[in-house]
Specification:
With about 300 residues, this protein is mostly helical. It has a single domain, classed as MetI-like fold, CATH 1.10.3720. About 75% of the residues lie in helices and about 0% in strands. The chain has 13 helices and 2 strands. The N and C termini lie far apart (about 70 Å).
């Protein structure tokens, strides 16, 4: 017999190679399965409140969803039917005022904190203030706007509500935008400086386009928080049973309706029609907030 015919190196290597097949009885496999199961269980438990809220709102308020509730004004007293179209418009208007105030300020502040003077004393104080504002009770923002805007103008209004909501939105925009800008790779900025770009060119053409998804995520999260606030609007916007725009005229410096305040008012009334509208308005408000959160997730995953 030829010696070369009886020698097979592949078989010898196969004998010496360790077994790569996974065994469910190994300690690491058992630990992995156990921890994965715990993680899934925790995720399911965490989702129970959201699912319960959505189910309850759909059951109690879903049957009143119709074109009528989006196009008509709130009913009074013993009236039947009606809707809350003006409250939807008012919510969008007040949040819009807050966004117009907070987004430019937060955007410029984030540029300063991330690029211009990230390690300076002013930046340290600004970050501390922004982090402190994230825990500010919303009612205090309403009191502040009441003292600064409502008392100064002598009336409740959408701009006053916008100031209160901007105070709540600002820290989210600043901190999220700064974090997104800091995540831009330093090699990209160094390469831009290496070919002769100025600091402003690096910020506007490199940093901001790259960090844009993160910045938009912060904006969407801030809008989602502001849309569900009630206490600041009680001090600044109050409520109105009329449209924000009537006969081509926008009543800017007058009280304005909002979904959260409508829910607060109708939920305490002894009339079944108003209580049903409160449930339906709650469902609409939750869906709006959920939509903003979904947009924030989608924008956060988008690559520029």
């Amino acid at each position: 017999m030829n010696i070369q015919d009886s020698f097979h190196p592949e078989q010898e290597i196969a004998k010496e190679a360790p077994c790569l097949q996974r065994s469910l009885l190994e300690g690491r496999s058992i630990t992995n399965i156990l921890l994965t199961g715990i993680a899934w269980l925790a995720a399911i438990i965490a989702s129970v409140p959201l699912i319960s809220v959505l189910y309850g709102l759909i059951v109690k308020g879903g049957h009143r969803l119709s074109l009528e509730v989006f196009t008509e004004l709130p009913p009074a007293g013993f009236e039947e039917g009606g809707g809350f179209g003006n409250a939807i418009v008012g919510t969008l208007v007040t949040v819009g005022f807050g966004a117009v105030i907070s987004i430019p300020i937060g955007f410029l502040a984030a540029i300063f904190l991330a690029e211009l003077e990230p390690d300076g004393k002013v930046a340290y104080v600004a970050r501390f203030c922004a982090k402190t504002l994230t825990g500010l009770p919303s009612i205090l923002a309403g009191v502040f706007a009441y003292a600064v805007v409502v008392l100064a103008t002598g009336t409740y209004s959408a701009p006053a509500a916008g100031v209160a909501l901007a105070l709540l939105m600002l820290p989210t925009v600043v901190l999220t935008a700064e974090g997104a800008m800091r995540m831009v790779p330093s090699k990209m900025k160094a390469a831009a400086y290496g070919i002769g770009c100025t600091r402003s060119q690096v910020i506007w053409k490199i940093v901001l386009p790259t960090a844009l998804p993160g910045v938009l995520t912060g904006v969407m999260l801030a809008i989602a928080r502001a849309a569900g606030e009630t206490a600041p609007l009680l001090f600044t916007a109050l409520f109105s049973n009329y449209w924000f725009v009537e006969n081509g005229t926008a009543h800017v410096m007058e009280p304005i309706a909002s979904l959260s305040v409508l829910i607060y008012n109708f939920a305490g009334m002894p009339y079944e029609n108003q209580i049903e509208l409160a449930w339906t308005a709650s469902l609409v408000l939750v869906m709006m907030v959920l939509l903003f959160n979904i947009l924030a997730r989608v924008l956060g995953r988008k690559k520029v």
